[in-house]
Amino acid sequence: MNTKKNIIIGILALSFQGAYSQFKTNIPLDKNVTTGKLKNGLTYYILHNEEPKDRASFYFVQNVGAILEDDNQNGLAHFLEHMAFNGTEHFKGKGIIKMLEKNGVSFGKDINAYTAQDETVYNISTVPVSNEKLIDSTLWVLHDWSGSLSLTDAEIDAERGVIREEWRTRRTSDFRLKMQTDPVLYKGSQYSKRDVIGDLNIINNFKYPELRNYYKKWYRPDLQAVIIVGDIDVKAMEQKVKTIFSGIPLAKKAVPRPYFNIPKHDELYFGTASDKEASSSSITLQYVLDEPLLKDSIVTRKNVMNSFYTSILNNRFKELLLKNQSGALNLKTYFEPISRLNTSFNISALAKKGKIIQAFEEAYTETERLKRFGVSQIELDRTKKIFISSYDDFINNKDKVDNDSWADKLTNYFLKAKPFLSPEDDYKLIVGIIKSISLEELNAYAKTIQKPTNQVVLVTGSDQDKNDFPTKEAVVSVMKKVENMTLEPYTKKENNAPLIDKELKPAAIKKTFEIAGVKDAKGYILENEAKIIVLPTNYSQDQIIFSAFSKGGKSLIKTEDLASAEIATTIARSSGLGNFDNIGLKEKLTGKVAQAAPFIGQNTQGFQGSSNKADFETMLQMVYLSFESPRFDPNIFNILKDQYKNRLETIKKDNESVFKDSIDLANSNHNARTFIFNEKFLESIDLKKAENIYRDRIKNAGDFTFIFVGNIPDSALGLIQKYIGNINSNPALKENYVDHNFEPKKGKTQVHFKRPMEVAKATVYLNLTGKTEYSKENALTMYIIGELLSKRFLQTIREEEGGSYGVNVGGNLELIPKPTFSLALTFDCNPDKQEKLMQIVWKEINDLKSNPVNANDLEDIKQALLKNREESLKTNSFWNTTIYNSTLNQIPFSTDEEYKNLISKINQKTIQQFSKHVLDSSSSVEVIMSPEIESGK
């Protein structure tokens, strides 16, 4: 979800217990939600919400998924999800997508679906509500999904190829490792047999009735919910739902929907998995737990304590890692749902090479320490402060929770009876629980989390590290050793010093200026020449977005020092600020909603940050210290170096990394400044150089522009003068970026190579690039060309050929360091089809020059641009980004009328003319990675 409640995302995560059980909660549903159940069993939830304004999201939730497939249907639940977009009673062929895209609702971005083991969820989001006909049509789409899919023989056969290519694309190293560990975690359960994407042999060969049988058996109103959230008349929408959905019949002999257990076990289950492309070695201890049947306030309280427990233990893990004496690269603990009936408590360690058992012992020791001695009062108080602050931020910005976030929560209410409260009641319940949890209660609860039964240990890594995998006996021996060893309680010293320990006086404002096209924004130049832009808004109740930039970036760094430049801000951000190290700074900022992160980019350096009104000063203090008192901790550098060393052990077998490096080198014509992660990079990084580069780039406030957008407090300008105005500067020093000619060689570059692969696939990249005049119209046209090709490839390569799961296309026109266009695409495919698909790619590209584009496609894209612009205008992030880019590039902001005029000027003729101009002048880079044995599956 996109709200500030992510910090306790697991607090109310609950699920069913027992086959054929019904989820229940005695916590009342938010009274603002209109809900009901039709005679056919279909449930509906309708909620008025105005984020974004004049939009609504429609969700169709099926309480069925891959877990309900028969063995001869393995993969058909997911196949059926695809078929929902391939013809229904009221929308023939691709009629659903055509109807929605005509109204600016885009496939992929706004129209989507997913299938899991236990549910299938469809969504149509950000639908304009002013168009009554569109609202009715959208409801009829949901109606047809319920029981009126066409499922024609021809459409089924056409979709087999798409699913095959999705199967190929998703067979990553992580997926293959999971396929090896799932039979251990889910031993004896139906979950061990269903991976959603399914059996390729079944996908290729199933008989048509098998898909229709699954559809008829499980897609039915008593297992379905319609969820509508948006800027709507709730009563009128409820009447529409009743009218449209009441006529859907319920089968007379409906089969009860079963739920599947993970069998209990006293023995510790142990499994290992390896893959030659795996990038790291890890070990995870999982305690499989039952979820309670009733979701009441007692369960909610336990979930709050679970979140407290993992937060505190993860903080201790972080402290251990920062000492850089560990066998682990990372340690973490968390709860996660693993089925409808079960969750698991996990202790996980990402290990340094050859140190898996050592890393596990360290993680288990800290867990045992907490279990034995509990948490300290300081840790509990700090955690309460963090969580309450997060909820304060949530309640202050409750009106900015978007439709999809509420729809997602209502989906969980329907599927899992996860309580759905109004923001006010949610705040009251959770914050009340947080405040009432005592040290004694939390410590007593912490002793109950780890059970002696239903334990699973999973070890994963690369093929070359298999010899370092511990045995089950070794893991059990470590657990017994730790449980019986003498341990000391956790102790921690606090740093109570102020964040800034010197007196600062506000600097004067030298002059003011206007921001072209943004009349409500005000510009100020301070005594130190720092340029400040402030735009007060009320788009959010309590949010300020901050950014800053100056020109130069890595373009001003010597080639031999670029490796150290790559790590400069990473080390600074991880080392703390001023008198506070990493942990000390985190503790000092407990409960604060403020962040400010420096960056050094290719041509600029600057900051990205945010805060609420109350912590605006804290954010400014962090910016001040990032300039005046950054830290560069040798421990952080050594930890980073260890992580890089570990990555280098496996990166040569990582096909995606090799593919990316090949693209970067071809696009830069092997420019010596091209960043490649390899042994030379590791040998070149130097802590002192990184510090010097940081101090050279993040300096001189007089060459920076600082931008603040949002609910700016009355005291803001004075605070900006105090902190930004006191950053050292050299007004005489004005820097600019240097163009190092990162561009491919003229003409055609082809890089074709073969790699060993577990699953045979070809991966294709094509980039057409060159120089052209920059204008807003040209930039928009370039984007539209990318979108037009995306639509064409969806039709030709995905649907007609079944050649790829999808072709990603992007058209772009950059101004820095010089006006350059790029039309880039990438896709995975069956190696046997690669040559034919490339012929289609080139045909579609050349058609842009020789034939007018499809008028309907062009109009759909223009409508989507106007719709997205209308939505974006009401967000702080849009305005901050817009002011940032227009100030950096010296291009005035386009008003609504100017933007609409720009869009209206773009037509079939201008697209064809511009396509011919850029494509005829472009150089091309083609990178194709194929398997060593070219035989597609």
Descriptive report:
By secondary structure, the chain is of the alpha+beta class. It is built from 29 helices and 25 strands. Strands 14-15-16-20-17-19-18 form a seven-stranded mixed beta sheet, sandwiched between helices. A six-stranded mixed beta sheet has the order 2-3-7-4-6-5, with helices on both faces. Strand 15 and strand 16 (531-536) form a beta hairpin. Helix 9 crosses helix 13 (423-436) and helix 24 (776-800) crosses helix 25. The longest helix is centred in the N-terminal third of the chain and has 26 residues, at 297-322. Residues 1-21 have low confidence and may be disordered.
| Beta strand count | 25
What strand line-up does the widest sheet have?
A: 14-15-16-20-17-19-18
- How many whole angstroms does the radius of gyration measure? 29 Å
State the end-to-end CA separation.
37 Å
| Oligomerization status of the protein chains | single chain
